[in-house]
Write a structure and sequence with these properties.
The complex is a heterodimer of chains A (448) and B (492). By secondary structure, chain A is mainly α. Chain A is built from 19 helices and three strands. The longest helix of chain B is centred in the middle third of the chain and has 41 residues. Chain B has 492 residues and is an all-alpha fold. Chain B is 76% helix and 1% strand. Classes of the chains: A mainly alpha (448), B mainly alpha (492).
């Protein structure tokens, strides 16, 4: 027998209170892991801040525009040679006939202020937007009695002048620019000093229509906003009733069988189908097969309806599910039919949730662009807002996101500012809609 | 009678039916509501339903089917030799339709009477110029066969429309009279109305299936047409994407698929680590205050429309990357790797930002679903929090997280605006992330915008691409759903 003896227990060298190398390593790993988590959140939030600041800093410029105040003498000899104020004859004078008036007006302006410049009157008038002549002509046709008088006008300045005041155009960048010269900029400086050229709030950007790519200063988002509005009307009118009906069936009545299973899987999948596929569907079915008009908000609305349906169905079902069974049981208990229990009791209680889901679905549809590209709601310049509902639904129009895309594609950087500005307006709509949804949820959410 | 007025009449008939039905039921009960089987308004709704629903349904299906039937009839009247001349039937039929619409407009504006239109022939009048005066622009010279086809097209349309008005009004009237005659105090009106309402609910629910069928069929038909004009082997196995209008386009999906997958991979490379760590931090470490603040803020990123990301890629991220990696000596790093603002990296990075909340929200839910007992067990054995997360929580949540990543991937593959604006338009196989490349969705947009001619393979290829995209994303979604569902069952 050998006495193995007791291996003497080693005296404790480390306690929980002193950190060993291994604990230190583990704690460091812990801190590292935690730091990664914080870093990830920071990256996400940083991107959000970057995105928002970019949008705000680049887009706010679009809400301001440079105007030039000019006194134009509406010469009778040019506009109404016979002097009989016959409106038909006045209308015959084209915008070319008005151009000399502007040249003279600009020359007089410079002369009156006794500014030294070697620029010709053609270059002086070039400071004005190309839309100024059309504006002048529209004014004269609307007020023929003003012919022969001198009237003060506030014309849009051309986009380079606007860009110069906003810092987008600099003296270095105009060296190779055939639209404006350094001399013209000197004149602009002088006119700014006397207050003839000034930058003010521009309502036309919010309410106006898109302009051709020669006149970025005149482009506005108003008409495409109307297009978006009509599309949302279609989406609301179709997606809400259909979506609610479908959810009621699936949640309250559907027997559990293979058919219901297929419908459920289908809805889950439709929610994840790329939006462009809905655009292809719209092009093939609504335009190519049913011959609905191209670029019409009605078609856009139909496509977006199909896209929004799954979102609305999913949120409506959640809202219906949240209504406790006791409500149904109570209704059935006092003799209501199942249909009555659902329509008279469950549906009203689920209404706030349904509304919230619908608003979020609409907000999603409002920002969607890709399907609209395929049904032709891009690149079309609608010159004025639709007057009737039928016209609004069927006549070609654009939509806010499609208009933004259109501006982003154009070559002149002045349009980029408009695109960012359009995004601000689009986001204002989305934020408002989402805020309403959140408020609704907070206000009416019930814990059972 | 325009369709709009027909709809108004049918609706008015329904309203009248409601009032009359209600009134008649009360009359048969001598005004005593207790003698009725159902509430009075149910009798009204019953009549309104019989009058309105079948006729409106007929109207809708008629409007859907009529163009198809007329087209097959008209096609039969066109001699077959014509197809060969103009290239294809589709092209010819679109000429016929355009001419028919032009003639309709001419009649509407009073330029020509109906009899004049039917008697038209090409020798005696210059139709193209005449239609031009009312704003109908016709492309090529009008062929005599096209004119006669357009005339018969109009004839069929007119008869069809008349038949539709008669049939709808007849059906509405018959339903109205039938339901009204049935109405008396013992009629089980509520049961009838509820059965009708149920039918409508089922119809609404099946619209989801109808949409899917519509998507698949609309793309399948045109894809079959495409494979009739273009070899399928080139589409699936070719290596070049070079559409042209000489008729020898090379249309292969592979370079586009490469661009799509490359950009998606970069997007996931950005989104997965950031999203996953954000989810871990939010669900395991963050205090409730931080969580309620940070989670909605991150989710804002998912609510921003893709056009905003597209613009951000095109005008901010692209030029910024160009300043770092391009412009040679003038750039910040003195590198010359990038030649333009659009590149795989631009699109991938921005798309990655967009996907962060997708990954983080889904993973957050999944990590929260891991039972607390598992964490407690691990912590009780002395593991640190990060060890618990890495060795217990994440392995348990892994299937769900994989599902979330797959969903994000399907989103990335189907994303359109960011790649349209940020990725460029050149189809090629290249591993260089600084080059611009193109994707399936970009090509769909460019092939289908502008003037589309549904007879050329260059247009039809978009449908084949769309179908491939649909199948690809559907596959990923189904896979993700199966994985997530399996995972859920594990802890239920």
């Amino acid at each position: 027998m050998t006495d193995l003896g007791f291996s003497q227990a080693q005296p404790v060298q480390n306690s929980l209170l002193t950190e060993t190398a291994r604990t230190r390593k583990r704690n460091a790993a812990e801190r590292r892991f935690r730091a990664f988590g914080i870093a990830a959140i920071m990256v996400g939030l940083l991107m959000l801040i970057l995105l928002v600041t970019t949008i705000v800093s680049k887009g706010t410029g679009a809400f301001q525009q440079t105007f030039i105040t000019v006194n134009v003498e509406l010469l009778e000899s040019k506009l109404d040679k016979k002097g009989n104020r016959n409106i038909e004859e006045i209308k015959k004078v084209t915008t070319f006939g008005y151009a000399p008036l502007l040249k003279t007006a600009m020359k007089d302006l410079v002369a009156d202020l006794s500014i030294e410049t070697s620029l010709k009157s053609k270059h002086l008038a070039a400071l004005l937007s190309k839309s100024a002549v059309a504006e002048l002509r529209a004014y004269v046709i609307a007020n023929p009695d003003q012919i022969g008088k001198t009237v003060e006008f506030r014309f849009l300045a051309q986009s380079r002048v606007d860009g110069y005041l906003k810092g987008r155009v600099t003296r270095e960048s105009v060296v190779n620019d055939k639209n404006i010269s350094a001399e013209q900029l000197d004149l602009v400086d002088a006119l700014v000093a006397v207050g003839t050229i000034e930058k003010t709030f521009n309502l036309d950007f919010i309410l106006g229509s898109d302009a051709s790519d020669q006149r970025p200063e005149a482009a506005g988002i108003g008409v495409s906003m109307a297009g978006s509005l009509f599309m949302m009307m279609v989406v609301l009118a179709l997606a809400l009733p259909i979506g609610v009906a479908a959810s009621i069936y699936l949640e309250e009545f559907a027997p559990r069988n293979w058919l219901t299973d297929i419908i459920e899987v289908n809805i889950a999948n439709l929610a994840a189908v790329p939006s462009i596929v809905f655009g292809i569907l719209g092009l093939a079915v609504f335009i190519n097969y049913m011959h609905l008009p191209m670029s019409a908000p009605l078609v856009g609305g139909l496509v977006l309806t199909l896209m929004t349906l799954p979102t609305i169905i999913i949120s409506t079902r959640a809202a219906l599910k949240a209504v406790p069974p006791s409500i149904r049981d109570a209704a059935l208990g006092v003799g209501a039919s199942k249909m009555q229990a659902v329509f008279h009791h469950v549906l009203p209680l689920a209404a706030p949730g349904i509304l919230t889901g619908t608003i979020i679905g609409l907000a999603q549809a409002l920002g969607e662009t890709a399907p609209l590209l395929l049904i032709g709601m891009v690149g079309f310049i609608a010159s004025n807002a639709p007057e009737t509902i039928a016209e609004g639904l069927l006549s070609p129009n654009s939509a806010m996101p499609a208009q933004i895309y259109e501006w982003a594609k154009r070559a002149d950087p002045a349009f980029y500012e408009r695109a960012w500005g359009g995004i601000i307006i689009l986001l204002v709509f989305l934020v408002t809609m989402n805020t309403i949804a959140v408020i609704l949820r907070r206000r009416f959410e019930r814990r059972w | 009678m325009p369709t709009f007025w027909l709809i108004i009449i049918l609706l008015a008939l329904s309203v009248a039916g409601f009032l009359l039905g209600r009134h008649r039921a009360l009359a048969t009960a001598d005004g005593d509501i207790r003698a009725l089987h159902s509430l009075p308004s149910y009798y009204g709704v019953n009549v309104a339903m019989w009058a309105g629903v079948p006729s409106l349904a007929l109207l809708a299906s008629w409007l859907l089917l009529q163009p198809m039937l007329i087209e097959t009839r008209v096609v039969k009247s066109i001699p077959e030799s014509m197809f060969a001349e103009t290239g294809s039937l589709n092209l010819l039929m679109s000429d016929v339709r355009r001419l028919a619409e032009g003639l309709d407009l001419a009649e509407e504006r009073g330029l020509l009477s109906n009899d004049q239109i039917n008697a038209l022939d090409l020798e005696s009048s210059n139709l193209r110029v005449e239609l031009g005066t009312i704003g109908v622009a016709l492309g090529s010279e009008i062929l005599p066969e096209v004119l006669s086809a357009a005339q018969s097209y109009r004839g069929f349309s007119k008869t069809g429309h008349l038949a539709m008005v008669v049939a709808c009004l007849g059906l509405a009237g018959a339903g109205f009279v039938y339901a009204l005659l049935q109405t008396q105090k013992d009629l089980r009106a509520r049961n009838l109305v509820e059965r009708g309402a149920m039918a409508l609910l089922v119809l609404a629910a099946s619209l989801a299936i109808l949409t899917t069928v519509g998507i698949v069929l609309s793309m399948l038909f045109e894809t079959v047409n495409f494979f009739g004009l273009h070899a399928w082997s080139d589409f699936f196995f070719g290596t070049t994407w070079a559409p042209n209008f000489r008729g020898d386009s090379e249309l292969s999906i592979l370079p586009l698929l490469w661009g799509t997958l490359y950009i998606s991979a970069i997007a996931l490379l950005v989104a997965v680590p950031v999203g996953l760590f954000a989810a871990i931090y939010l669900s395991e470490y963050a205090s409730p205050a931080v969580r309620t603040l940070a989670k909605p803020l991150l989710e804002i990123l998912a609510g921003i429309p893709t056009i905003v990301y597209g613009l951000f890629a095109l005008l901010t991220v692209g030029p910024m990357l160009l300043r770092f990696f391009g412009q040679g000596e003038n750039g910040l790093l003195g590198l010359d790797w990038m030649s333009g603002a659009t590149s795989v990296l631009t699109a991938g990075f921005v798309m990655g930002i967009m996907l962060i909340p997708f990954v983080s929200s889904l993973s957050d839910d999944i990590i929260n679903a891991v039972p607390q007992t598992m964490r407690d067990g691990s912590l009780g054995l002395g593991a640190t929090k990060s060890e618990t997360i890495r060795q217990v929580v994440l392995p348990a949540a892994l299937p769900g997280i994989v599902g979330a990543i797959l969903l994000a991937a399907s989103r990335a593959i189907g994303e359109t605006m960011i790649v349209v604006m940020g990725a460029g338009a050149i189809a090629k196989f290249s591993g260089n992330p600084f080059e611009s490349m193109t994707t399936i969705t970009t090509r769909i947009v460019s092939q289908l915008t502008g003037d589309t001619d549904f007879a050329s393979p260059e247009t039809l290829v978009a449908f084949a691409l769309g179908l491939s995209l649909f199948v690809l994303t559907l596959g990923l979604n189904v896979l993700a759903l199966i994985i997530v569902r399996k995972y859920r069952e594990q802890y239920d």
